Amino acid sequence: xxxxxxxxxxxxxxxxxxxxxxxxPPPHQTGMQxxxxxxxxxxxxxxxxxxxxxxxxxxxxxxxxxxxxxxxRSDLEAAIEGQPADISVADLAAEIAAVDAECIGFEASDLAxxxxxxxx
Length: 120
Fold this sequence. Notes:
This protein is an alpha+beta fold. The chain has 3 helices and 5 strands, in the order E-E-E-E-H-H-E-H.
């Protein structure tokens, strides 16, 4: 491991010291931000961080779940982004289910529920 460089605020894991894990939204995002988690019974934890106004501008999906293929997370996020902020759980679940991904430990409706709860 390399010694720290003077003036470098990153810790050993590469995170910037003092940020508490906060990642500011990109400059083009000006909407409200919210986070919601859903613990699926006998399943996994699904957490969504959403930036929204009239529509969902940005979403980040995290948790202790599995996807096949693993790269499908960005496809799920893309299916949610751009949807109207007043979308129903059923309609959002249908958009998520249309993504070619196998969600292991949760269903499309669980992800939709967490997203809708975050923006309401």
